[in-house]
Amino acid sequence: MERQPSDDARAAAISLTRVSKRHGSGRAAVDALREITLTVQAGEFVCLVGTSGCGKSTLLSLIAGMDRPTTGQVNTHGRRVALMFQQPALFPWLTAAANVELALRARGVPRAARRERVGQMLQTVGLADFADKRPHQLSGGMQQRVALARALAQDADVLLMDEPFGALDALTRDRLHEELERIVAEQNLTVVFVTHNVREAVRLADRVILLSPRPGRIVEEFAVAVPRPREINTASVAELAGRITARLHREGTRSDGH
Amino acid sequence: MVTDTAPRRVVRAPAVVASVGSTALAIVAVLGIWQLVYLSGWKPSFVLPGPGEVAENLWQQLHEALLWAAIWTTMGRAVIGFGLALLIGTVVGAVISRNIVLRRAFGPVITGLQTMPAIAWFPFAIIFFGLHTSAILFVIVIGAAPAVAIGVIAGADHIPPLQLRAAKNLGLRGFGLYRHVILPGSLPMFVGGLRQGWAFAWRSLMAGELVVLISDTASIGVLLENAQNLSDMPSAIAIMIVILLIGIVIDAVFNAADQHIRRRWGLLEEQK
User: Fold this and answer.
1) What are the boundaries of each domain within chain B?
2) Sheet with strand A30-41: strands edge to edge
3) CATH topology of domain B49-265
């Protein structure tokens, strides 16, 4: 499928309608998500923020189609969805290039075209010189870049990211924020990014969505009006992050009450 | 028995020299003690010959066609038997690892089979197949296939769930998932299973050649049996050394494969 043209940018990329998810059954059942209704526009960058266990990862699994909601509907409008995790989840027996290439093979891209595409993808994430390295020879940040290249190689319109930079040091994370922002703009990607780091969310997102602790519900949405390019340590980012954090704390104490 | 999968250190050039040196030291020590016991006159020399006499016997046998014919026969059986065990073990392991019901039913049987001494199968095999090579091959397969199957099952079990999720998100399903992720992902455990399977196969084969005597066929077992019948201790020890060396060489091949895979995967601690 061809990428959506930019004039299509107002179209919905992901529609969630009253989505609930219950893990397990009977008395042991746990409500992970309750009645989530959310629309993500094509080309939009949405961050989901919440404390641990608010069902953020479950929500991504549902959007990725790796799990089904108990009730409600998930519609990705026929778009290709790529998923990135906190761990790079690369295959240790393959080189960086071969890891990326596997995404192309899985899509049935012919061999001749694969080589060139792999080169482009690694170039995009700044790892052109590391094509022949295996994951264990790369730093954590580089591994996550390979994972990003692999996700891009899926030719996805929608990128789902589950705390992808959570395990990285601050400096590496800042650099990857810049690169992600650039790549998303270049390729007109729709992103749903899960994090518990509020500043990171404000740094990256067009819209920050706050989820309550289990069962996860949408508490509030914050549009991020800070103009790009942004930096994580500026006052405008900090100010909004402070407001979101305060709201998060209120929600947390309320939930602890019952 | 548990498959040995503990990470090993990378052996670098000085370490190789040191390792060869210590191996040589160990051999010299064993030969020295042997020579001392021989010189003490504890046993007459036809019961316990010295290392020199055995070495001379071995050297002589290495120049005779009989030993090479015997090695050829025995290694032929080893290759066929181990090949069959590999095939059967891999297929059984792959099927069982994918099916929960089969796994509950046959998992304990396979583990149980592995604990059974191969030699206990020979009366059954001899009655069933007669004094024929197939009796030996049968026992090799029975001895080695469970280890291979267990390697396959353990390998598939040890693939991190996150890697499987990643693979599924890439769109890999069915055969593609098996070929690109499960098969390569289980390789280290599989090689461990092969290595153990080989050890079982080699032991079963030696037992088999001593028990299932096939007339007019020179095999290592037959040579050993002949040496015993003739009370020819130098020949017996010389043949034992041949058996030991073959076992060590093959194990070294598996070890090299194992190390190669671990290095590629970054499972070895690099020496600073």
Assistant:
1) 9-42, 49-265
2) A30-41, A12-23, A71-75
3) MetI-like fold (1.10.3720)
